[in-house]
């Protein structure tokens, strides 16, 4: 049984990686909060890389998830793992993704309709930004509706993908050091 | 025999009101004691409760010099002090039954009641003294052989003399009492101590006390008994005289000439006795004489002039007796009499009530004055004779006061005439006519001769000269008052008569000049030879002499005639004039000193006008000069004297400001009046308020204020021009969209409107103020389409906060200085159910400090109703009313609304987060600038609390940050007792880039604000660096862009002095990495890459705006407008993509900040450049949200703060308040309070400073326009036109008014520190209208002008006789037209009265001309510097001198020809 699950997981991973090649999940840079959560199904479960666990809301719609980054980031995808077969009426159907620098200037990026999703839903938010990337400090995922007019929602995994940048030799001007001592040692001689 | 006649009392009701008994007295009436002062019941002491009989009540003076009423009951006594500032009362214990009580010079004597069966041999003392209510009773010692026996009882006390009567020996004894202080008198004390000792060891030295030379009454054993009880001696009685008299009653006394006369009556014998004692200072009085009279009643009558004894003889004759002066019999026979004050009431044998008043209650002040002077000059005995004559003339001959006085004077002279006065009766008509027009003293002389035949004036021989001289000086004094000329003439006539009799030729000649033609002298030869004294002294002549010699020549006053020097005080006018002249001619005294001297002498402006013209002109010239060079130290009196009421009302403001406003209210425009009948929706209710007069005057050149009014109007229908819209407005959804946009815009207006109407109302106690309601009606211009937003759109939630703001605006419109705001007024305005309007109204009142008047229990009623907005409004309102007071009551109220301040483990508060946010902000206001440790700690913990919840959101933490900042506002590192809190380092964690990791970011704005406010203006570089933004892009990415703005602004507020209004400084503030993108003009698209730059720029602008708030600094304005233009341009860039949209939000926010900043700089100035740009911002509809519109309207409001009457202060509190209310995170929707509590946007009211200078006309009290010269401390000179906003008070060096219409007023703020406060408080310059041109060019004579007019009315007036005299009504009327009344009046009188120049008038003119002549040289030249023509023009003076010369010449010529 465990083996099957392992395999399924592997399959899943490969599936994920296929569409996200060249991108890296930067969700760990963010602070995750949600509008409500059922006890035993906290929001951190969307970050545990386990498709069997999930976050469940506990309140009235719309449910929101806030992903707050510590710094400005450029992102390409917001990906969610939804499983209609298991969650049925708990599966979100209408999602609105907003982004901005803070709560004060959240602007709608896109609204997504999903039909009985099984597996990853990749929302290419980068397409709405500049040069295919969206610069954000804060992402808000708002679940406006569920399938079959369900009340609470299940979200199993969420990943935020940013382009994987080959860190070149660190440009001098990018180094935050300002003191003479540090600058003098920031390159290998 | 002459007898005094009495008047019949017609109306018995009135008889008590005829004369007042002037000293106070007490009367026992039943159970009460009445204290009567000046015949009016003053106090009533009631003793019904004590249920004891009142034995005695008296007024006395205790040893301490305090007057008191003493009331003695059975065993208790009450003492009430009746002094001016001492109203204590005491209860004394009376250990015996009191027979009688008498006031003594130092307290009172109490006489014990002796029962008939008392053992006569015990010989206990029965008379005690009480010297102080707190002392015990004391005994009496006797000096000499004679002592009081038990049968002696006090029957009368007067001064030192005590009269006792011995029933057994039928003897009347007189004693002198002396008070000795038992404390100070060593011999007594020691003897007392010895007595104490001796009580234990009596056997050892029983004779010790006997060795004392003083005898005392009781036998040793008994007296010791008293002494053991602690009784001491305090008074010594020494025997004077004893008479064997029995049954004597009704004692009374009069005192005169050092002789005390005590009278007593023995009813059975129908005899009265007078005992005369000579009083000698510090020695025992000695007995002079005793007289016996037949009398059935006796009483003393004391008037100011005479002290007499009224004697009623058995025959019914009443006479006034005194041992020294002649007796005055009264006509008629009488049954009884009584004395009340100086009035004698009589009942004659027919039962008719009559009275006679001895006191000369003359209506005639001249007679009164003359009498008092004569009283001073004559010895008492002579004066009594003189006054007796006066009384005879009054009452026996029924003369008037004047005639009586003249007769009594003449009588002194006629006495020395041998021949009978022969006055022939008036025979023919001609003579009668000629007599009636002339002065003559026929009647008076006739009576005088009768008087002199009755009274013995023989001692007057030596006093004739002083009497005449005294009258002469009185007449001289009268010459100094032009009003009393008829009285003076009468007196001069009397003098002429006297001097003719005395054969004093020089005096006769002198008086002849005055009245020769109108006086008929009656010849009489006087047998006594009185040598003529030195020539008649003329005060006017003396003034001329002084002016000529420019020094005070000696004046032959009364003292030079052998009269006492102190006599001169009897002539106040002469004395003060001499002092003034001395002042004028003293080279060391300035003209200002002269004015001070005048005030000291009590000479008012009115009094000056009564001086003879010459003196008047000199004094007015001085006053005129002093008016221009007033001394800054002068009090009101001096300033009033020189007629500088403007300076006076500035330096000594008396009327509160709101009094002025009432007057303004009366001025209503026609528009306002008609508004009541026309449709109310069409009337702009905002456009008229009490200050409209002033604000209209400030912006009199254009209609900018009307425009602002229109923009900030939320209560009337809005018309929009459809052609300005690209979209098609014909479809209903589109219309609805527009309507909703406009609706949101309207909702954002109230805060701004509140700024415009700030402090414009002074409601009456009965006036209900009602909020103006929103009107969302929209009129599409071409056409008549009127649309409303959907009912579903306008929900209660949508309008709740805007309504709150409307309420605040209404509350703030009530002036800070309103006096009528109290609990009942607030309750009167309270609606049935609590609304957001009322909540805001409470907050608004609180901001202006009016909630201090709210009773505590009313606040509980408000709070227990749990109406959210009401709680917020009330808590914030109370906190701001009690700003910085740490009031315990309000602290409690706030604490129960903040969970953080409740003890750990207490129940969850069921209070909304917003109320808690308001509560924690309220704590900051309440503890403002207190450095309260506990509150600082709590607020800091709240900022840094990491668990973000619904309650502790960003807004709550920000409020906590503000609170922390307010508590320690501007203290910097100087925080007493808080070093262990590590405020800086802990707050720094909250704002570091790591904050997000620790979930602290929500607290970052609060932490930044707290640090900024604590270190505000400290120029602390260390802390500024900590707040400042990092310089590298990598690190910058870690910060939320909007926090960058706060950090930049915060850093600059700390480095307050570094902030400069120039581009160099601005550029220096921008981090190097952004410099390349610095130019906003080049931005073609909105990009989120520029977010940081925009925020940095807005931050710089925000700090500039606050740094130069209210200064109107032109450079700062230029920079800010430059940025504002750039940002407005950026706002118009398309925002389609997400990135652009996100950037657009920031751009709009930054635009608002820059707009607000530029308004801040120009606060109250209503600057047109800023106004134009704000109008553009107001006109936007999409995609602007509620917050942005709110900011625009706040900017508009600040720009026109209070209609241009207010500006912003730059105190720490003001900057903090501005920081809070302009906090650059505006709500996105009307319900949004997430980042910042909307209610706190109204705190700007704490930063308002009233700085508009309003000149007012002194006469009309109406504001007026006057050019001003304002010198700043930097030396810059500004020319302004008041009313206008002044620069900040601290930067002004002096303010002076210019222009010709008003007296120039210069206020030097640098030299007088008080002036700055005065100006800050009043902001009013009261100006005196002054017509500089009139005094110089006005024609010499009004006649030619009037004669030219040809109206028939004028002709009539011209021919009438009235017009010919100088005081004609016409002249008075024409005078009043002129501003400079006195000057013109004097000129007219001077020029018109040449036809009948009297000598005095001529002298007066000579004084004037001499003055002008003297002004060319000497002391007067130095003082006047040819300014002597200020009051009278040079032409006039020259013309006058010519006329005088002509007159004198012709006069002399006539005389020669005659």
**Share in helix of chain A:** 10-25%
End-to-end C-alpha gap of chain B: 53 Å
| Helix/strand structural class of chain A | mainly beta
Question: CATH superfamily of chain A, please?
Answer: Galactose-binding domain-like
> Average pLDDT of chain B, to the nearest integer?
79
Tell the overall outline of chain A: globular
Could you report the average pLDDT of chain A, rounded to the nearest whole number? 81
Strand content of chain B: 15-25%
Q: Which structural class do the helices and strands of chain B define?
A: alpha+beta
Radius of gyration of chain B: 46 Å
> Can you write the helix and strand succession of chain A as a string?
HEEEEEHEEEEEEH
Backbone CA Rg of chain A: 19 Å
CA-CA gap between termini of chain A: 56 Å
The biggest chain-chain interface is: A-B, 28 and 34 residues
Pfam family, one (chain B): APC1_3rd
Family (chain B): Belongs to the APC1 family.
Keywords (chain B): Cell cycle, Cell division, Mitosis, Repeat, Ubl conjugation pathway
Subunit structure (chain B): The APC/C is composed of at least 13 subunits: apc1, apc2, nuc2, apc4, apc5, cut9, apc8, apc10, apc11, hcn1, apc13, apc14 and apc15.
Provide an overview of this structure.
The complex is a heterodimer of chains A (189) and B (1458). With 189 residues, chain A is mainly beta. Chain A has a single domain, classed as Jelly Rolls (Sandwich). Chain A has helices at 2-19, 84-87, 180-184, and strands spanning 23-25, 30-34, 55-56, 63-75, 77-83, 92-100, 107-113, 118-123, 134-146, 154-155, 157-163. In chain A, 39% of the residues are buried. Among the domains of chain B are: 1-19 and 245-359, no CATH class; 20-240, no CATH class; 365-535, no CATH class; 558-651, no CATH class; 1333-1457, no CATH class. Chain B has a 5-stranded mixed sheet, with helices on one face. Chain B is elongated, with a radius of gyration of 46 Å. Chain B starts with 6 loop residues before the first strand and ends with a helix. Mean pLDDT of chain B is 79; it is low at 185-223, 658-665, 678-688, 1332-1351 and 1353-1381. Classes of the chains: A mainly beta (189), B alpha+beta (1458). At the A-B interface, β4, β7 and β9 of A face α36 and α42 of B. Chain A: This is Anaphase-promoting complex subunit 10.
